[in-house]
Amino acid sequence: MKISLLIPFYNEEKQIPITLDTVVPILASTGYDFELILVDDGSRDATWSVIGEASRLDNRIHGIHFSRNFGKESAICAALDASVGDAVILMDGDLQHPPQHIPEMIRLWEAGFEVVEGVKMTRGKESLMSRLNAHVFYGLFHWFSGYDLRNASDFKLLDRRVVAKWRRLREHDTFFRGLSAWLGFKRTTFAFEVAARQTGGSRWSIFKLAGLSINAITSFSMMPLQFISIIGSLMLIGSVILAIQTLFNWFAGTAAGGFTTVILLQLLIGGSIMLSLGLIGIYIARIFTEVKGRPRYIIGSTTDEK
């Protein structure tokens, strides 16, 4: 039996030695054979060199280097594709996912659970804007998709059967937290406190988080498209009401110039049309991305290459 620990990195040259010094003894204490798969997501610093040196010192460490930055979701896909363990654990490289929970995750897996999910008790030292964005996103995601991912994380253990099913999902744009919930299987959770970063800071800007939110919601639900029908229906009802009022005033001889009303209606209708076209455009862009059939990532090199 073997455990695979998957960790994506991006510009984390200073963090990698700290992370490895922390997780390797914990994995060794479980009594299982293990491997570490470290994915360098096209870093611009010496991340790949540090991973290569760690691999030379410990043959249980395997590195994957992307040809460019493809994003965390692609790094997760590459690590899952490369893993060979009977159980696969995914965690962030900044140790905000406390590796001290790994033995607990393995015990739950040994008890028969095929997906073990880490749930945040708190969100750590996130900024107010990040907390607000997360609250809005997870609320909308729950409403649109039916999956409640509030306080969910990528800190998970997946059984080999779950990983095999994951590999059959061929969409280009993935959302790991949502898709791992969609897969089902026998699952359980454990709570953890988000630890403070020991080096650097978060590389997730508000714009990146907003982009991820849009991608995740449109990946799992067509409900935003239904808003177009709802907006059209509301506009139709409003138009009928306004027409009745206008005719009543005309027959009553109290009709007045409606320049302001006309301008407001044009702004409302124009805004509704642009919003509708924007929603349609998002889904067309997703279709365009999928039909091109490009790979999720391109591997530039690995530490296993001779």
What report would you give on this structure?
- The chain is of the alpha/beta class and 306 residues long.
- The chain has two domains: 2-221 and 295-302, Spore Coat Polysaccharide Biosynthesis Protein SpsA, Chain A (Alpha-Beta Complex); 223-292.
- Helices cover 52% and strands 16% of the residues.
- It has helices spanning 15-29, 47-57, 72-82, 102-110, 128-145, 160-166, 176-183, 206-220, 223-252, 259-292; strands spanning 2-9, 33-40, 61-66, 87-90, 115-120, 152-159, 187-192, 299-302.
- Strands 7-5-6-4-1-2-3-8 form an eight-stranded mixed β-sheet, with helices on both faces.
- Helix 9 (223-252) runs antiparallel to helix 10 (259-292).
- The radius of gyration is 25 Å and the shape is elongated.
- The mean pLDDT is 78.
List the domain count as a whole number: 2
Biggest sheet: strands, sense, closure?
A: 8 strands, mixed
Lateral strand order in the biggest sheet? 7-5-6-4-1-2-3-8
Radius of gyration, CA atoms, in whole angstroms: 25 Å
Shape: elongated
Low-confidence stretches: none
Q: What CATH architecture of the largest domain would you give?
A: Alpha-Beta Complex
* Structural class by sheet pairing and helices: alpha/beta
Q: Could you name the CATH topology of the largest domain?
A: Spore Coat Polysaccharide Biosynthesis Protein SpsA, Chain A
User: Could you tell me the strand content as a percent range?
Assistant: 15-25%
Q: Termini, distance in Å? A: 27 Å
**Number of DSSP strand runs:** 8
Name the CATH superfamily classification of the largest domain: Spore Coat Polysaccharide Biosynthesis Protein SpsA, Chain A
What is the class of the largest domain in the CATH system? Answer: Alpha Beta
What's the number of helices?
10
What proportion of the residues is helical, as a percent range?
Answer: 40-55%
What order do the helices and strands follow? Answer: EHEHEHEHEHEHHEHHHE
What is the mean predicted local confidence, pLDDT?
A: 78
